[in-house]
Fold:
Amino acid sequence: MVSLTAIRASNARIATALPSGLVGVFIGATSGIGENSLKAFAKHASKPRAYFVGRSQEAGDRILSELKALNPEGSYVFRKADVSLIKVVDEVCLEIKAKEKAINILFLSPGVLQFHTKTAEGLHLAVALTHYSRIRFIVNLLPLIQNATSLRRVINVFTAGKEGRLYMKDIQGWKVPMRALTGHGSSLATVSLEVLGEKAPDVSFVHAFPGFVKSKLDRPGQGALVFVLRQVFKVMSAINTVIPNEENGERLLFIMTSAKYPAGKPIEGTSGVSLMDGVEVTNSTGGKPGGGVYSVDENGESYGHKMETVMITLWKHEARDIVWDDLETEWKRITGSIVA
Structure:
């Protein structure tokens, strides 16, 4: 476990250890985890450029002013968008591609507690936000990430460490039992990053569990199920330590920038802030230190043998091919192509 003191010490070195002008793209960043992480990035990076996407113009305007106060030398762009729609994801990506030649950090955290709701494009809303949309962002922006001459990292904040049975005949989870949804969704996220790790071994991919953090994930969910889930979160928060917003941002910034999470085949100068004494490179999902794809807990550490055993079972059942074929099938159905 990396201490909070060590995390903050590493983050304090970002402005000098990494080049000025780092470019970060934050999806789902107008509240909670995304907002916390975006502010930490703006606070510690030297002359950062940050693009952040969310549903609320009011929240976006508020955060813009707060970012400028945190670091007046930075450049910040807000884009209001409903990223549950793949066509909108493509629009946002094309706008970013028109402005940037390279991206250092892609941070993904959109989500909503709405179940059995279908998007206008025919996808399960919750899974569209946590799977189809997020991976589309990565695929679309991956060439820009690979263009970066320093840090190259993708952070997918979801339910890392909860990997479980993957319902391969029901990827969208329409009939997956409620008790199994977390394991199913977590495996989707990690398996997808593993495919991307093979396609881009020079990029680091991290599936991160943020711990218990105050969030507006339930907005705008309504109905009996969402009411029950809200009560469950209240109970869980009462028996688990709730991570303060500032600390949450610091912990996730460490995952974004530390050399603890290198790419599988890193290009020189792209591994992040060098490790301090006592901090070691994390084991990948395959159990190898520095393997390039990671599933980590709220302390930034690998879940170890238990999670690796689950992933080995999924590999044996060809989960990577099944999950990726489904992604490309849905993307083609909606947009006509597998990349914007």
Notes: Residues 82 and 321 are 28 Å apart (CA to CA). Strands lie at 23-27, 49-54, 75-80, 105-108, 153-157, 204-208, 293-296. The two ends are 39 Å apart (CA to CA). The chain has one domain: 4-212+243-335.
